[in-house]
Amino acid sequence: MAEEEFSPTDVVLARRRIQNHILKTPLIFSHALSKLLKLPVYLKMECWQLTGSFKVRGAFSWILNFLESHEQGPLVTASSGNHGIALSYAVFTLGNSLKVRVYSPESAEACKVQKMRELKAEVVLKGKTFLEAYDSAMEYVKERDSFYVHSHAHPWTIAGQGTIALEILEDLPSLERIIVPIGGGGLISGISSVIKALSPKVEVIGVEPEAAPGAFLSLRDGVPRERIELRPTIADGLSGGFSPLPFRISHNLIDRVVLVSEEEIMEAMRVFEREEQVIVEGAAAVTLAALLFKKVNPEKKKTVLVLTGRNISAEKFNLIMAGGQNA
């Protein structure tokens, strides 16, 4: 598959390829959140996925495709944590001897770095933001005989992430709205391609932190805004711009992108814990934040929130639960 090619059919093929390596996560009706928000709310529990995030879907999709035509790497990627964990886990569990080198920003969660190293990845902390870590990774690839594994801007990865939408539509055919976190755009491009192909009336809404509004700016300006100014955010998994391939796939499929503040994200994390006793990281909580703070029309549509991950340190989570600020 050429890197510029992608269709919903690729998602169906990816599901067949990865289904024995991942969990089909539950779609749960949240009585508590439905009562609080006065609309039917369902939670897609990717925070319960293997490795603690949805990223393992794209990682297995990429690596299994790769192994069909290559015998060895090494593999290089850039990640704030979850993609690096997922890629390392995929290689480790397949029993493959491929070497994995992950470039992460210096601000990466210590617990995520530890997980990558436990899975035998070489982790290089470089730069203050994801984009700086990404540039360092690409420089390394140019200098070495290695393969870059993109976290969100490769069709194999996007196809894996899109399998979430197939599961949701199977479990809730009457779905009316889906709210999806956006980082680089791989998740929402995969999900929106499936949703709009199979249920075109379903509303697709993306959410980003105000600190990293790449998709918001891209849809506003009509061009992919990958290189943007990034500020620190508790939703570190969403810290990046909107890449060209996800933009091409999804810019006509996403109905709206909204932004949420740091305090709104942290309050949503508290509400998840208080109302559903669910631990999520900031990147997953943006979906609820958009509803709590009226960034999304509160009409009574059957709404799915994609809870993308749970990888956050106990210390940081407990600080947020106590009302503290992200350091």
Quickly describe the structure.
Helix content is 44%, strand content 13%.
Question: How would you describe this protein?
Answer:
The protein has 13 helices and ten strands. The protein has helices at residues 8-18, 31-37, 55-67, 82-93, 110-118, 130-143, 155-171, 186-198, 214-221, 244-250, 262-276, 282-292, 314-321; strands spanning 27-29, 41-44, 75-78, 100-104, 122-125, 147-148, 177-181, 203-209, 256-260, 303-306. It is an alpha/beta fold and 327 residues long. It folds into two domains: 8-53 and 162-321, Rossmann fold (3-Layer(aba) Sandwich), CATH 3.40.50; 56-148, Rossmann fold, CATH 3.40.50.1100. A six-stranded mixed beta sheet has the order 1-2-10-7-8-9, sandwiched between helices. The chain has a four-stranded parallel beta sheet with strand order 5-4-3-6, with helices on both faces.
Features:
single chain, 327 residues, alpha/beta, Rossmann fold, 6-stranded mixed β-sheet, 4-stranded parallel β-sheet, 10 strands, globular
- Spatially, the strands of the biggest sheet line up as 1-2-10-7-8-9
**β-sheet strand percentage:** 5-15%
Categorize the overall geometry.
globular
Q: C-alpha Rg, in Å?
A: 18 Å
Helix residue percentage: 40-55%
Look at the structure and give the CATH class of the largest domain.
Alpha Beta
**Largest sheet data:** 6 strands, mixed
Question: How many beta-strand segments?
Answer: 10
- Structural class, from secondary structure content? alpha/beta
* CATH architectural designation of the largest domain: 3-Layer(aba) Sandwich
The fold-level CATH name of the largest domain is Rossmann fold
